[in-house]
Write a structure and sequence with these properties.
Length: about 260
């Protein structure tokens, strides 16, 4: 039986670059949202003229589209991810720009007929609206309030759930930017961690779950989680996701 220290060491040594979760195979599971974001995004990219993926991570999801539009661009803020994304998107002819998550997008107004984003840390709705062409679409799968709260509480104790990631706030922000929300769906998804090494790797990779997480600072809490997994078979948490689709009104023709 692998010891607590060995499991923690494995989780601490695993690379966190990119947005590939294959390392968790056999060690953790998470339900997928019923709407199938990757499939939806792939269909729209196949018919787009110019597509943009905001906060692409390592470009893994975008790289799986069946057909790339004539112009394909992506942004990413974390330099190690930028390098991974450029490798992943090169076969599609995609160009990756290093852009801070809260910065203006480095594109002219009305540059894209499709903008997508999976799990953005924040959404600059004003910039999304600016770079969309009239009649264009923004499609995004976002993280909802209270995602993985069980892990956060296990590490940090009781903390407010917050409201920043409320889907209805996203709808209001989209409308304020001049977009029309045409689809909003929500889901709660069961996640299970089967060893504490998977917990360590997840907290290192998904850094907003426990801000400032380090193994040294949270060793006692990790040991408690380890004992809970040994007793119960898994640590169960719930992720919240919502899908939002918004369009930019088309220009009206002459009367």
């Amino acid at each position: 039986m692998t010891s607590f220290d060995e499991l923690v060491e494995e989780g601490a040594a695993a690379p966190v670059e990119g947005w590939d979760f294959s390392w968790f195979a056999g060690r953790a599971t998470e339900e997928r949202p019923p709407w199938g974001y990757a499939r939806l995004m792939g269909r729209r990219m196949a018919t787009a003229e110019a597509g943009l993926d905001v906060q692409t991570g390592g470009g893994e999801v975008l790289a799986a589209i069946p057909e790339a539009p004539p112009r394909l661009a992506a942004t990413e803020s974390w330099p190690p991810n930028v390098a991974v994304a450029r490798r992943n998107l090169a076969p599609l002819g995609g160009t990756v720009y290093e852009v801070a998550d809260d910065a203006d997008l480095p594109f002219a107004a009305e540059s894209f007929d499709l903008v997508v984003s999976r799990h953005p840390t924040l959404t600059r709705w004003d910039e999304i609206a600016r770079v969309l062409r009239p009649g264009g679409t923004y499609l995004s799968q976002q993280i909802g309030n209270g995602t993985m709260r069980e892990l956060t509480v296990a590490m940090m104790g009781p903390v407010p759930a917050g409201t920043a990631r409320d889907p209805h706030r996203a709808v209001a922000a989209a409308r304020e930017a001049g977009l029309t929300v045409v689809n909003l769906r929500e889901a709660a998804l069961r996640a299970e961690f089967f060893d504490v090494g998977a917990v360590v790797h997840f907290l290192r990779k998904v850094i907003w779950t426990v801000p400032g997480f380090t193994v040294e600072a949270y060793r006692d809490q990790l040991r408690a989680v380890h004992e809970r997994i040994r007793a119960e078979g898994a640590f169960v948490a719930w992720s919240r996701r919502f899908l939002v689709e918004a369009t930019k009104p088309a220009l009206r023709g002459p009367a």
